[in-house]
Amino acid sequence: MNSDFFDIAFGEAKQAFDLNEVPIGAVIVKNNKVIASAHNLKETNQNVCCHAEILAISQASKFLNNWRLDECDIYVTLDPCPMCASAIRQARIRNVYSALENLNNEYLPLIKKIFVDDDINAMVNFSSNLRVEQSKKLLQDFFKNRR
Q1: DSSP classification of residue 104
Q2: Could you give the residue numbers annotated as active site?
Q3: What's this model's pTM, rounded to 2 decimal places?
């Protein structure tokens, strides 16, 4: 894990915040180099699939000209939702580094189940709560401003 990549993810989350989007950012890294970064654009694009992780996966796939993101890691400012966890798994990303565990208690067991090894894809290594205070503050500030 490299905290510099979290800094980039939080920069993306701040861009989402400034657009009045839920402030979540994602960065995909291969061989210790950033190959994609994105933030939520769900409201801006009026598209439920425009989560930071999905957009970053799409960018990385274009960059590598391959949907298989073998040997890639993703840094996210909040645990992925089940949709994003499935996309991460399908893309064959090997490590997920998350700043904060999602408050939806139903997500964590489901995400862990999605990331488990099976006969088709290798397991996704998942680490959470790596930058708790920074992520909490950003999300709290966002939702406080919305009220």
Answers
A1: -
A2: 53
A3: 0.92
